[in-house]
Amino acid sequence: MKNLLKSIVAIVSVSVAFTSCNNATSSDSKSGALSGNVAEKVYVAPGEHDEFYAFVSGGFSGQLAVYGLPSGRLFKVIPVFSQDAEKAYGYNEETKPMLNTSHGFVPWDDSHHPDISQTEGVIDGRWVFINGNNTPRIAKIDLSTFETTEIIEVPNSAGNHSSSFVTENTEYVVAGTRFSVPVPQRDMPIKDYKGNFKGALTFISVEPEHGNMDIKFQLIMPGFDYDLSHPGRGKSHGWFFFSTYNTEEASTLMEVNASQNDKDFIAAVNWKKIEEYVNNGGGTMMPANYAHNVYDEATHSATSTMKKEVLTVNPLDVPGAVYLMPTPKSPHGCDVDPTGEYIVGSGKLSANLTIHSFTKMLDAIENEKFAGDAYGIPIIEFEASLAGVVEQPGLGPLHTEFDDKGNAYTTFFISSEVVKWKVGTWEVIDRQPTYYSVGHLMIPGGNSRKPFGKYVLAMNKITKDRYLPTGPEVTQSAQLYDISGEKMQLLLDFPTVGEPHYAAGAPADIIKPRSKKLFNLEDNEHPYAAKTEADTKVVRDGKTVHIYMTTIRSHFSPDNIEGIKVGDKVYFHVTNLEQDYDVPHGISIIGANTSELLIMPGQTETFAWEPKQEGVWPFYCTDFCSALHQEMQGYVRVSAANSNTPLRWSLGEDIE
Amino acid sequence: MKKSNIIMFIAAILPLGLFLFPLWKITLEAPQYPTPLGMYIHINDFSDANPHDIKNINLMNHYVGMKYIPEAIPEFKIFPAGILITTVIGLIIAFKGNYKWFLFWFILMMALSSAGLYDFYIWEHDYGHNLDPKAIMKFTNPDGTQMGFQPPLFGTKDILNFRAHSYPRLGAYFLGLGIAASFFAYLVGKKTHKKTLSM
């Protein structure tokens, strides 16, 4: 009996060992087969979520697109600087003020550099800031609603390009002018540019709780072109670095005349010092005229306020606040590594990358290793702040981002590639082609103290033959590389909205939990909201008619309206009474000279309609809301201007 | 105080848990609702499982002509009063009564709970069958009779595109435990009584 028991135990243990051995073999072979599978790396199964959000600017589309990485799937295009008929942004009465400027209503801009807010040098996922280049503006997008909630115009600026980068606690979002201009603007000969035009670097404070923006001060710099900028971080927190070109101060045939100097500058600005100066009453208040547009989530409406003055600071009035570091050949990118020690200048006409050391810069300042000055601003000796050079990495270096393992990744526009190099030793580790002519690249958190170095997204200006052709105008693209290994690996190549100028990325976990599902109806403070069907009404005030309307599956209230006359201006104030996730309703009416409305649950939006002909005109729900969406319709009776049809409205019964 | 009376005391107190925790929960699952719609039934209230659920249940149900879930029903006044009165009776029994009274309280509570469940069933039946004749969508059973949409009293049932679950919640367990404890008090009391007699 005992023997039998023993042999059973023996058989069982052998078979267990055998089975587990089998398992080990099969799982090994499986992972081996998968490791080479690129498709698997970007495949996000139906219903699954991506690992990262990517906020990719639309460039000349003026918008900001939201993609998932690694799948490259497009989730939303957030309207920022351009009207969007789909979402009624800039068309409905509530959001028109968002696009107000000192030049009036400007329905378009060129959106370039999104940057996510940070706390202690780590992206916190609260807001994305983005600059409008053409009519200088900075916008803030709230990442709980993914809507643009604030836009501030930047006075004394032109070609707002070295923007909109945030300091490591989002103390400031910074906007530098690309084109120098007369400050303040005035009528003068263009040829008198040199010495007379100025470049304004604008520090916009961000209120920590709600993110409200306000121009704290403008630093009025010499008339160079301020191309890109980045904040110091860690040890260099408190400084900001701006690349410059056209230190020649040319005003015509710039491609030649602005490319003459062997070196231009990276300007280092000690903003903490200037902040202290203005907090103690320093600076000069200058008359100005710029719009500040704020969207209020409670009233679902924006207001535009014209501001009439701005605080300016002459850099010579704050000794020790601004220095210039010579950097070869019209530097474009000006990127700071996660430790804050290295400032990478990409001389776009140079074959090399120039890296400045923050520590050496401080030492040079202390020991006054200066090579002269420009308009009184000290120029640091080139060798004194130089940390190193990446020799001959490629042609046309533009931008650099960093991973969390001490590597840097630089794009080369002319040689169309991404080059990986080692920070500190400056040796090139790997290079991969892009298709074609890459501009910016993005690593989630790559502009912070804590990059998430799993992927890099390269954004290309030209695609030519990469996709099915669509006539002369073809899409631009983004390309995703796996950078978790020593060698970069191209995973995915996807078309984008507009020009994917630059992007900001974040792990989904930082942003996803904050995303709202709907607006609470009880919190709606819109002055024309109807919060129940009992509150709906039609009110005439002279030739203006206000319709307080509601929507809920699957009807409008009221849906029959009479007593409107030719020549009236009719405002449809439509409140969506739904309180369920993803149940918007839309509305428009024949001949409305504006876009539809797309109203989220709990929200009120307004469109204006000026009927020009008598008749009975239908309106309907434009968003497929429910099984009875097709029944969601109504009529407005329009009578002659001199008629006396009484104003009446109803739902579910004949008008009497 | 005798051991059985202490148990009876606990038994009388336990149903008060109904004022703290929901009695029942009805959950509706459907593909379009990755987070299911749900409604808690308290002794004196209906409440949302997630914000706005009752409003959204009403919205769904209006397509088939079901009435809105009422803000208040008479039961919300009767049930709390019933629980309070029976608790007071239970406490008096716990202090003054003997095991025979415990059994009385047990039977009283069983009877009242059954009546409550029956009342719930009647309401559910009316809710699921008393449909608006102008309902947007009308469904019939295979035998030609009008289809009802009554949620299950206890358990899980498919209703059109929804899967409805109906189960007791913590409050009901408090009540059940209280009732069971009174019967236990009765058994303990009876045993002690016999011992005393035989001694």
Describe it.
The complex is a heterodimer of chains A (656) and B (199). In chain A, 10% of the residues lie in helices and 43% in strands. Chain A is mainly β and 656 residues long. Chain A starts with a helix and ends in a 6-residue tail after the last strand. Chain A has seven helices and 45 strands. Chain A has a ten-stranded mixed beta sheet with strand order 6-7-8-9-17-18-13-12-11-10. Chain A has a six-stranded mixed beta sheet with strand order 41-40-43-44-38-45, with no helix packed on it. In chain A, strands 35, 36, 37, 39 and 42 form a five-stranded mixed beta sheet that branches. In chain A, β40 and β41 form a beta hairpin. Chain B is of the alpha+beta class and 199 residues long. Chain B contains five helices and five strands, in the order αβββαααββα. Chain B has helices at residues 3-13, 53-61, 75-96, 99-129, 170-198; strands at residues 24-30, 33-41, 46-48, 155-159, 162-168. Chain B has a five-stranded antiparallel beta sheet with strand order 3-2-1-5-4. In chain B, β4 (155-159) and β5 (162-168) form a beta hairpin. Chain B is elongated and about 75 Å long. Classes of the chains: A mainly beta (656), B alpha+beta (199). At the A-B interface, loops of A face α2 of B.
Approximately how much helix is present in the residues of chain A? 10-25%
Distance between the termini of chain B: 20 Å
Query: How many β-strands of chain B, per DSSP?
Result: 5
Report the biggest beta sheet of chain A as strand number plus sense, adding barrel if it closes: 10 strands, mixed
Helix content of chain B: 40-55%
The fraction of residues in strands of chain B falls at 15-25%
Structural class based on helices, strands and sheet pairing of chain B:
alpha+beta
Helical/strand content category of chain A: mainly beta
Q: What is the tally of beta strands of chain A?
A: 45
Euclidean distance between termini CA atoms of chain A? 100 Å
Measured by residues with Cβ under 8 Å of the partner chain's Cβ, the largest interface is: A-B, 10 and 9 residues
Q: Summarize the main sheet of chain B.
A: 5 strands, antiparallel
DSSP helical segment count of chain A: 7
Unreliable stretches of chain A (pLDDT < 50, length at least 5) are: 11-35
What order do the SSEs of chain B take from the amino end to the carboxyl end, as H and E? HEEEHHHEEH
Strand order within the widest beta sheet of chain B: 3-2-1-5-4
What is the subunit arrangement here?
A: heterodimer
Inertia-based shape of chain B: elongated
Q: State mean pLDDT of chain B (0 to 100 scale).
A: 93
